[in-house]
Amino acid sequence: MKKIAIFPGSFDPFTKGHEDIVIRGLKLFDEIIVAIGHNSKKSNRYFDVERMAELIDQTFEKYDNISVILYSELTAELAKKHQAKYLLRGLRNTTDFEYENSISQVNKHLNEDLESVFLITSPELAAINSTIIREVHRYGGDVSDFLPYKI
Questions:
Q1: Is 151 marked within a binding site?
Q2: Which domain CATH number covers 83?
Q3: Less Cβ around it within 10 Å: N or C end of the chain?
């Protein structure tokens, strides 16, 4: 049976840290779906969602087992639709763990077949944070070292 994982997030923007988690996830999964979701806590995106999907797709153009989709529904339901039994998530620190642990418990309740798999961020990428990147970009700073594509 094919091991399919969903890598969900708002990806505003998608960083080298995210890219690292996806590439490393390929050692565990046959297919990874990068799913850009609507986060109800974030009313307005900084980077256009369709453009971000294109940039992520270009980042992984050499991989036929990585796809990019947009979604606006419960992640647990999205996983069912794509026959994904796994959610792939990255952890930078203990704060991330506390947040992700709560989400994984709810996802498991909503979809008992769904397992969350956490990868620890590579040390050299652990400081990369989408919120900080948005602020640097907003004020004209160079963010190219943090992103796997040109914006």
A1: no
A2: 3.40.50.620
A3: N
